[in-house]
Amino acid sequence: MHFDLPLTLAALLSYLSILVIAVAGVSGLIRLKQVSHSLRVVAMLTIFELPLELLGEFLMLTHRSNLFLMPIYTIGELGLLALLYHRTLESSTFTRWILGAVGLFTIYTIFDSVFGPGLHWFRPWQQILQSLLILTMVSLYFLKLLNELRVNYLTREPMFWVSTGLLIYFLGYLQIALFSNYLLQHYSVQFNRNVWAVHTLLSIVLHSCYCLALWMRPQR
Amino acid sequence: MDAPPEISFASLLFTAIGFMLLAGVALVTFFTIYQRRLLQQQLQLHKAEAEYQQQLLAAVIEAQERERERIGRDLHDGIGSTLATAKLLVGRLENTTSEEATNLTIMVKEILGNAVHDVRGLSHSLYPAVLDRFGLAEALQHLADVCNETSTLDVELSIDYQQPLVLPQELALYRICQELIHNAQKHAKGASLLQVQLSQHPGGVWLTVADDGCGFDTVALAEARPASGGAGLRSIEVRVQMLRARLSQQSAPGQGTRTRIELDQPSFA
Questions:
Q1: B128-263: what fold?
Q2: If you measure CA to CA, which chain A residue comes closest to B34?
Q3: Cβ of B31 and A167 within 8 Å?
Q4: Which of residues 30-89 of B touch A (CB under 8 A)?
Q5: Which pTM value belongs to this model?
Q6: Closest Cα partner for B251 from B184, B186, B179, B197?
Q7: Is A16 in CB contact (< 8 Å) with chain B?
Q8: Which helix (H) or strand (E) holds B160?
Q9: Is residue B162 packed enough to be buried (19+ CB in 10 Å), middle (13-18) or exposed (0-12)?
Q10: pLDDT for A131-167, tens place per residue?
Q11: B16:A167 CB<8 A
């Protein structure tokens, strides 16, 4: 087995990202039964992501494509986040709408993965659709916060941190996803690594927010 | 089409990502500040509402106490002393001749008649039986008659009221009118005429009380009201709230005062 990743900034970020994801996954395991009904889904999400991230990293280090994991990751992440916002927003209209959206997205993703380009290519539209759906859910959560004004201190609200992490991550990731195949086709490996280093940084921010939310004491 | 050079594309892509991230951070910051401001506004509103409710409660209690004091005074000074005099005269009957007894009996009858009149007056002020029996129009007419008899301020009544309201609404309107007349008698210095108008429209019922007295500065009164009490006006506000009606008051120094209660959702009997 041969690992080849020089100790560049991108590599350092990659190792840090794995560490943060591992901490988030372990936090999820520890806090799964202690956190609230809604946050339990965040714990489940971190647990779900950990083996996929580890496997993906391992495949990347051994110079094998890990892109076949993306549809599984995308469907699982969107499904769990939909469940999280279903429990948080407590709106029957949203539940009906998101059930339909996740159902259609799953069908599209399976269809696109099976009949689309080979498993060595990115599938930007899956990522873009997923990002837009998640950004919509985050926006609905922020609107609910403004409409109901129930939360006295936003910085002490776990769901606020989860939503902030998701907003920052998916706002940045949208463009990376959009150009992922284009970058792969036309530009150097180094440039691709630099772009994905930005993604790694965003992932660190997101998983740090998950950790913060999981270890935060709920407001009284 | 050829792809743009790597450096220019890199700067474009990283600028776009950076811009989106900055926009995200700015959005969250703005949202946090805006939410805190909204929350503070809501807290201030709740505080003001609670203060207002407390003032209304205080006004109701004060009005109750004032009414009890008045009843106590009426009973003690009026009916109490009348009956005491009657008792004294009856006591003198035992040791008098028949001629004196006849005179005393006449006096006692007169005194007891006054006591009965006082009791009726007191009873009417506590609960207007006319309202219960004959409705709001008759009760207001009776109120105007009493005021014309007892006060120098002439009350002119104008009634256009065909479909009677349910008793609680009629009673509330009656009490509001009673309080407004009382206010005019007390505060409208130099007033010679008080116009009371009860009118029914397709949209509801209006009660208007207007005097031609000294009037007042509404802005100055609104600013001074929290500290200055104004129990009478607050008790009117309580009844207006209870009726889910609207209260409007127009006044200016030297131009009299006009108060209108607009009941948009009347419940008919």
A1: Heat Shock Protein 90 (3.30.565)
A2: A146
A3: no
A4: 31-32, 34-36, 38-39, 42
A5: 0.66
A6: B184
A7: no
A8: strand B154-160
A9: exposed
A10: 999 999 999 999 999 998 888 888 899 999 999 999 9
A11: no
